[in-house]
Structure formats: C-alpha cells, structure tokens
Write a structure and sequence with these properties.
Layout lengths: L1 H20 L6 H17 L3 H23 L17 H16 L4 H12 L6 H20 L56 H13 L9 H9 L9 H10 L4 H29 L4 H6 L30 H16 L6 E4 L7 E4 L2 H14 L5 H21 L13
Antiparallel strand pairs: 1-2
Helix pairs in contact: 2-3, 2-4, 2-10, 3-4, 3-6, 3-10, 4-5, 4-6, 8-13, 10-12, 10-14, 12-13, 12-14, 13-14
Length: 416
C-alpha cells in the first residue's frame, strides 16, 4: 500500500512538471488574425459597421473553438466539445480563416497563405488535425448563426424634401444597421436614449454655440493641440480600438483561451454598440452642426446666430448626428477592458488621419474621454451627444461582461 501511494504521488509530480514545462498555447494566433482582419479592412476600405460584424463573427468562432477544448468559460451559443489534446492554435486559426473566407472569397490565396503560416509551427499529428476540424466546425456554425442577421437589408433612406426641390444626393451610411440582430442586446433599441434637447433649451443653445466656436474650420479658439486631437480621431471603427485590445492582452500575458475570450467580448461589444447607436441615430434623424449652424434662423432662437458659410474642421460623417457613434464605441470597449483587465499601464495609438502623431494614455477613461472631446473639436458632435453616447457605451459594455463568456464557476445568466 505504501509503495502504491508513493508511485501515485511520483506519477502525479511527473505529470505536474511536464504540464509546467510544456509550451503554452500561443495567444498571438488570436492577435495575428485580429491584425489580419484589420489589414483586410484597411486594404478594401471596409466601412466600420460591416467590419465590426466580420470581427465579431471571427472572434466568437475562435473563442468557441478554443474554449470547447477545456470549457474554461461558458460558451456563447455553440455546444462544441473536444479532447484536451486538441490543438488550440490550429482550432483558432482554422476558425478565423474560414469565417474571413466566407466574407472575402476573392482573397482566398491570401487567406490560405495566412492559415499555412499559422499552422506551420504546430507539430503534425492527430492534435493538429482535430484542431483544424474543430475550428472549421465553429466557423460553419457561427456563419449559419449570423446568416439572417439583417446585415444585407437594402438601404431605403428617404431624403427630406418637397416635390421638385433639390436635396443632396449622397446616400447616408448605415441606415439599416440599427435593425440588424445584436449579439447580446435584446434589440437595437434596448439602450435608445431620450430625444436630443429642444432647440430653444439652455443645453442646445450652449452646445451649438460651443461647437460653432471651437469646431469650425477657421476657429480662432481651438488650440493647435485640440486641432491635432480632432484630426487624429477622424480615424474611426474597430481599427481604432483593436490595437489597444492587443496591447492589453500582451500587457497581461494572456494565454490563448483568455485572449480569445477578451477579443470575443470586445468584438461583440463593438458590434452591439454600432447597432445601438445607428438605431438611435435614424430614429431621431437629428441635424449635424453644419446643417444646424447654416440654418440657425429656422429655430427662432436669437441666442444661436446663423453662420451661412460655417464648415467643421473635417468632413462631416454621412449619417445623423445624435448620439455620437465614436463615443459609444470607445466607452463600450473601455468598459469591457476596465472590467476584464483593468488599467494595464501606458498604451498608445497612431492614426492614418494624423500622420506622425502618436497618442498615449495610462488610463482607459482618459482614452475614452479624448475620443469624445475630439468630436467636438472636429465640429461633428454637440457635447450633449457625446455624453449620451458615452453613457450608452458604458451600459452595453457592462451588459456584455455581466452576461457573456463567464467563468465556469459563475452562476449562469440569460444572454438575451
């Protein structure tokens, strides 16, 4: 009996040592494919809403695949299972490849090459074969899950005009986005805010006058630093926050499963924030500063003078003003990061709209606040719209973290 107990203890020690010295599953496969998706979006000039959808599909598929191997977290929707010996790297890479291929079949050679590079360091054998199969299965199921999410609905925006009167002919962007199926929210309208302030209110008067002064192209009150910040954040969409998420994962030394979870959470959050903000934007159809300031006489508010030739610092985005989209997304992502990893030291970002400029922060809140104030400096959003956007983003981020991909020990909560 003594011999048997000693043998079991010795074997247990050996197993522990082997596990401790075995190479960890590479978290960088998650970040590699995240960067790959961003590079494709940049090359193809994919707009923020469709890029957000692609990212969320890819990262949820990757998470479902790798999490199926050890079930560290609750899955999103899929009921996958796999042997512990299955290669997590192979599963993640295959899932990412197949989701991207379903969206971008025209770049199959490029995606196949990226997959080959991801799989090359993995030893040949059953573990790799099983991982590839698992990843493909996850991709197929996520693609099917989102097949009828409303993302292909035809745009039907009706310009406001009267018979025979010219109206600008550019079609606004993302008019149908608010009706697409969210990942976590019950509907796009779940966090719809109350209406913008009345045009004779104190808030409206103060905020439209502020943006006329500080957000105009020829502003005499906006400082050079504020101009730089405004131009920097002409850069929008997931490509502005993915590099920050990658820096967070690296700073925390995340393994593959935790990294996959973080990117799945942020990508679902980013997508739902986009859905929520465009649902609200087209519900209220509120005018942008360039329209309001050039037509200020229509409000009968003597405290908001008309400026017939006013222009913002940059080209106004082609969709309604209220609420601020950039604000909701940055606040939502910041909320997820703050909850999951906390502040993680200095992080930085560059922007193609401000060449040679690098912005740095040490707190996630400071990053989110800068995004919001930048939209005022740019002449795109009133201050009340930025505040409402941030509030919506914080609520969406909190909802996602509280209900999705929770640890196995956490009490299950409904996802819808």
């Amino acid at each position: 009996m003594k011999c048997t107990s000693w043998t079991i203890s010795r074997l247990s020690l050996i197993a522990t040592l082997i596990a401790a010295t075995a190479p960890l599953a590479r978290a960088d496969v998650i970040m590699d494919w995240n960067a790959k998706a961003d590079a494709i979006a940049a090359e193809k000039q994919i707009l923020p809403a469709p890029h957000s959808r692609v990212l969320s599909m890819m990262h949820v598929a990757m998470f479902e695949a790798v999490n199926a191997i050890d079930r560290r977290y609750a899955p999103y929707k899929l009921a996958l299972s796999a042997e512990r010996s299955t290669s997590r790297e192979a599963a993640a890479a295959a899932a990412a490849h197949d989701v991207l291929l379903s969206i971008y079949p025209d770049i199959k050679p490029d995606l196949d090459s990226a997959l080959t590079s991801s799989l090359a360091p993995i030893a040949e054998g059953e573990s790799k074969i099983a991982g590839i199969a698992l990843g493909k299965d996850a991709a197929v199921q996520i693609i099917q899950l989102r097949a009828n999410d409303g993302s292909n609905a035809p745009e039907s925006y009706r310009p406001l005009t009267t018979a025979g009167v010219y109206a600008p002919t550019a079609v606004p962007l993302f008019q149908t986005t608010g009706a697409t199926t969210p990942w976590v929210m019950a509907s796009g309208s779940q966090f719809r805010p109350g209406p913008p302030p009345a045009l004779d209110s104190e808030v409206w008067t103060k905020d439209v006058n502020e943006i006329r002064e500080v957000g105009g192209r020829g502003s005499l009150t906006r400082t050079p630093e504020q101009t730089t910040i405004g131009r920097f954040w002409f850069f929008v969409g997931a490509r502005t926050y993915n590099p920050i998420v990658r820096q967070a994962a690296l700073a925390k030394g995340m393994d593959l499963v935790d990294c996959a979870r973080l990117f799945a959470l942020t990508s679902m959050t980013g997508n739902d924030a986009i859905v929520a903000v465009f649902e609200a934007k087209y519900h209220y159809n509120f005018w942008r500063p360039i329209t309001a300031i050039r037509n200020a006489d229509l409000t009968s508010n003597a405290a908001t003078p008309r400026d017939p030739s006013w222009l913002p610092l940059g080209d106004t985005p082609m969709h309604p003003e209220y609420p601020c989209a950039h604000c909701i997304v940055s606040a939502a992502i910041s909320t997820v990061l703050q909850t999951v990893v906390g502040d993680f030291g200095e992080f930085s970002l560059t922007s193609p709209t401000a060449p040679g400029v690098t912005r740095k922060w040490s707190r996630l809140q400071d990053y989110s606040e800068e995004v919001a104030i930048a939209r005022i400096y740019a002449g795109f959003h009133y201050r009340f719209s930025t505040e409402v956007g941030k509030d919506m983003g914080r609520k969406i981020g909190a909802l996602v973290v509280a209900t999705q991909l929770r640890g196995a020990e956490a009490k299950a909560e409904p996802s819808r």
